């Protein structure tokens, strides 16, 4: 399938820079980490989050406890990885984040070792499209082959797995999501973790049914027709007769 909901909603319009220090974005990254921690997707110092504004990237520092992250633990780099602002060394997965920005023009990247996503990446080559909400990530979610953390090999395999997708699982490691905005990248991480949990429950009972291409296409057409995912006010005339 050439067009998915991921493509429909993924308009990669970069934000405009308010300052080179990206103070708002550093706060947003810290907020996102604490939310992911509260949702159970982060364990200790594992995982990393970044947001891009034009040619600057605010990214979590290596060794920081993400669930308690503060804005001063977010470092600003350029798209070549050179530190522009901040006192802490950026995450060891910096090349992975920069690779996503270079190849896909995204606005934010989230990497976690979330338990259910990591578990699915231990046994499957891809998470099948078991629910129509997964179309927001592009449908099936590929599992990138294992490579040592922080290596170009890992970044390369994850970038390939993300082709046309808003998420990838990483064998024996975790998961990566990306999106035009940080909020959306976080939502994608939560959606992926939910879907992995649903798959696990279903697989414990039997063989999960998978949406075929025709069913997926019908969802995409319906979502486009109804502008799915946004709220719609009731017209005043209808409101009176409800
Ligand atoms: Zn990792």
From TrEMBL:
Residues 27-200 form the Class II aldolase/adducin N-terminal domain. GO terms for biological process: pentose catabolic process. It comes from the Bacteria. GO terms for molecular function: aldehyde-lyase activity; metal ion binding. SUPFAM superfamilies: AraD/HMP-PK domain-like. Transmembrane segments: none annotated. The keyword Flavoprotein does not apply. Keywords: Lyase, Metal-binding. One of its GO terms (cellular component) is cytosol. This is Class II aldolase. The gene is fucA.
